[in-house]
Design goal:
The protein has seven helices and no strands. The protein is mostly helical.
Length: 151
């Protein structure tokens, strides 16, 4: 018989084997991440070399400075006026409301179709039965009735 801390007990051997497996898995994960990082760095270096040869600038933030994707093109003056606070957002919203969107009715119909069973009688009944606040109120009313019946 060995003590619980002895290295030859089955539990300790299993624990050591599990720790070795975890360490190997972690080493594999780290090696994989390092490999991906090296590949990404090589890809960036190649992009920079290509950009220096073709005199192109690589700016990964171009999307941030481009005009928003919308159905109607907006002029730079309008965007600048809005950003500087000269043009109000209400005016833009009113303009869109005046234009009217024919697909709004279709979307409303689709929403109604998708929610046709959302508040059925059965659903409302289960919601009211499972409501914790309603259960507390029921218990309070039962306690009040019990006290009134004792008097």
């Amino acid at each position: 018989m060995h003590k619980s801390w002895h290295t030859k007990t089955k539990a300790n051997r299993l624990r050591v084997a599990e720790e070795k497996r975890k360490a190997e898995e972690e080493a594999r994960r780290i090696a994989n991440m390092q490999k991906e990082l090296r590949e990404e760095r090589q890809r960036e270096e190649i992009e920079q070399l290509n950009a220096s040869v073709t005199n192109k600038t690589i700016n990964k933030l171009d999307w941030m400075y481009s005009a928003p994707a919308s159905h109607q093109p907006q002029s730079n003056e309008d965007l600048e006026a809005y950003l500087l606070g000269k043009r109000d957002a209400k005016a833009i919203l009113e303009q869109k409301e005046k234009e009217g969107k024919p697909d709004e009715k279709w979307k409303a119909g689709l929403f109604a179709f998708s929610n046709r069973n959302a508040n059925s009688e059965k659903d409302l009944m289960t919601k009211s039965m499972e409501d914790p606040l309603a259960e507390i109120k029921r218990r309070e009313q039962a306690a009040i009735l019990a006290m009134q019946s004792r008097k």
